[in-house]
Amino acid sequence: MRAREWTVAAAFGDPTEYDVPALPAWRVERGDDGDLAFAAAGRDEPFIAAERPVRVRR
Known about the structure:
Blueprint: H1 2-11, E1 26-30, E2 36-40, E3 48-50
Antiparallel strand pairs: 1-2, 2-3
């Protein structure tokens, strides 16, 4: 639900003006084998990682 709230608020200006929290700054890392990891900007350890990510269609 937060993603929808942020998208609607961002369409009309700064989301923080509508009491929607700002998105965190993430760092994306890719390994040599295609690994994918997301880490917070101020931290070293990723909070989520995938060894073999695949593309999906929605």
